[in-house]
Specification:
With 338 residues, the chain is an alpha+beta fold. The chain has helices spanning 2-11, 13-17, 21-34, 92-98, 103-109, 196-201, 256-262, 300-310, 319-328; strands at residues 40-44, 50-54, 69-70, 77-79, 82-85, 123-126, 129-131, 140-144, 149-156, 159-166, 169-170, 179-188, 192-193, 208-209, 220-224, 230-232, 243-245, 249-250, 268-272, 276-281, 284-289, 334-335. It is 23% helix and 28% strand.
Length: 338
């Protein structure tokens, strides 16, 4: 039943976002598969109208659709890095979305490439591997503002699992707060009641924006126990991986219905700033360092040493590799072989 509910929530986004080129491409690709016997789900939207939606078979799932990762005490690095050859005039922004990444991630991982015109056949590192945040709850949502990424931790038949999504957060003056919250409301097709603080900056905005393509909340919204803040979709997918909201946390249009279907009201939401993360795969130690412009004066080497010491790993690493990782701050897991 929970799986079916998640499917219904995912499908409900298609009507509102069909003007999005990305969704059109996904939709028509799925239609091609229907001739091979893939399932159609007819959802009644009113007494007079029915819409036919396509349920993607697992083999159709592209890298942009968030995977489920299992993890354990000795396995706290998830995913695998990939490479991609630029096709024609593809930008890093388009490639990031295709692989479920934010703008910040793909730019940091490819500092020598022009984000808008990387060049036909250029080789792009896809940083689809992540060290899990350290010392956080193993249930509920964790949002690391420094890396602009959300993690949803849960347990499935005793196995610890996690899904992860890139996010956009508040820009300067409208900072997304850290702390521990709960989801208190789930809303499909939310109405945006424009805050006074936003209207002062953008007086041309109406007081209320109804659901639809002009609504910056997108198709789904999760209200936090600090009711001024939401986790929601967006009508500006290029803003994912950037500080571009008025304080809320936004996800790609294709990601928010997935998260919406997974979580419940009362789900815990922990928002942190963690520029340095340390993880392990078996006996191998990894460090992931993100530059955080909000942490002025932060000594990244001292912070890395502090985290490694706390995890009792400092005496097991190669210090030269640590210095190199601190210098580069590429936001990708770097092995620290002893």
């Amino acid at each position: 039943m929970r799986f079916l509910k998640s499917i219904l929530n995912i499908l409900s986004v298609y009507e509102d976002n069909f003007q999005d080129k990305y969704f059109k491409n996904k939709y028509f690709k799925a239609i091609e598969f229907c001739g091979n016997g893939y399932l159609l789900l007819i959802v009644m939207r009113s007494c007079f109208t029915a819409y036919v939606f396509v349920i993607f078979h697992l083999v159709l799932v592209s890298p942009a659709l968030s995977e489920v990762y299992s993890y354990a005490k000795n396995n706290t690095v998830i995913g695998n890095a990939q490479s991609h050859s630029v096709n024609g005039n593809e930008s890093l922004i388009e490639i990031a979305r295709k692989f479920g990444l934010g703008y910040n991630e793909i730019v940091s991982a490819n500092p020598d490439l022009d984000p808008f015109l990387p060049g036909d056949n250029a080789n792009v590192l896809i940083p689809s591997q992540w060290v899990l945040p350290n010392n956080v709850p193993d249930d509920g949502i964790v949002i690391n503002l420094t890396e602009l990424r959300l993690y949803y931790f849960f347990s499935n038949n005793g196995i610890k699992q996690v899904r992860t999504f890139p996010v956009g957060i508040g820009y300067e003056g409208f900072d997304t707060p850290t702390g521990t919250f709960r989801i208190i409301e789930k809303k499909i097709k939310p109405t945006w009641h424009v805050p006074e603080s936003v209207k002062k900056e953008k007086p041309y905005l109406p007081s209320v924006v109804p659901p639809g393509p002009n609504n910056p909340l997108g198709s789904h919204a999760l209200r936090l126990s600090n009711p001024s803040y939401l986790i929601h979709g967006t009508n500006r997918p290029w803003s994912i991986g950037r500080r571009a909201s008025a304080g809320c946390i936004r996800l790609y249009p294709e990601d928010i219905p997935k998260l919406f279907g997974l979580v419940q009201s009362s789900t815990r939401v922990t928002i942190i700033r963690q520029p340095v993360k340390v993880g392990i795969i078996g006996n191998r130690i990894y460090i992931e360092i993100h530059e955080d412009n909000e942490e002025s004066g932060l000594n990244y080497l001292n912070e890395a040493v502090r985290v490694l010491t706390r995890e009792k790993l400092l005496d097991k690493i190669n210090t030269e590799e640590l210095y190199e990782a601190v210098k580069d701050k590429r936001g990708i897991p770097i092995p620290l072989s002893s």
